[in-house]
Design brief:
With 177 residues, the chain is an alpha/beta fold. The chain contains seven helices and seven strands. Helix 1 packs parallel to helix 2 and helix 1 packs parallel to helix 7.
Length: 177
């Protein structure tokens, strides 16, 4: 793996473990010479991932829509910051640059990014690995919904199995290897 797209919050959230995992993810990727590809902001968990990877000597590529450059406080110290015209272009460019995808805690933007690449995989638009780090049970509700949808015959086993659920930092480190 050369590049990992990271989906996460532009806020820190209320649980310190979210930032702990974000920082560890940045450091672990840098130690493995895996570039981080992310949304380009300097704030929230996004900023924590980027700053940790950069501090550990890693490469970090941000992809930020122009209309969010000021609103999301575009990170000024990245290896590279690419400005695009829309959120659609952001997601497509991140997917193009990445060899794999991982989601850590985040809000609706994180869910949007995760669901889109997961759908793209189902449609055969890519075959890249996708993981979800369920920090402190953050995604338990989503995972229950996926199980419910599968039980209702609306999510196939192959679709469900295309999403690797990681319970903690140690599992994330093993997945990166």
């Amino acid at each position: 793996m050369r590049a990992l797209a990271v989906f996460c919050g532009s806020a820190l959230g209320t649980d310190a473990r979210f930032a702990e995992v974000a920082g560890a993810l940045g450091r672990e990727a840098a130690a493995r010479r895996i570039a981080i590809v992310y949304g380009g902001a300097s704030v929230g968990l996004m900023g924590v991932v980027a700053d940790a990877a950069l501090a550990a000597g890693g490469e970090v590529v941000g992809v930020l829509p122009r209309h969010l450059a000021d609103r999301e406080v575009g990170h000024r110290a990245l290896t590279r910051l690419e400005l695009v015209d829309s959120m659609h272009e952001r997601k497509a460019r991140m997917a193009e640059l990445a060899d794999a995808f991982v989601a850590i805690p985040g809000g609706i933007g994180t869910l949007d990014e995760l669901m889109e690449v997961w759908t793209w995989r189902h449609l055969g638009l890519h075959a890249k690995p996708i993981a979800l780090v369920n920090v402190a049970g953050f995604y338990d509700g989503l995972l229950a919904f996926i199980a419910h949808a599968a039980g209702a015959g609306l999510v196939r086993a192959s679709q469900r199995d295309a999403l690797t659920v990681l319970p903690d930092l140690a599992a994330l480190a093993r997945w990166l290897d």
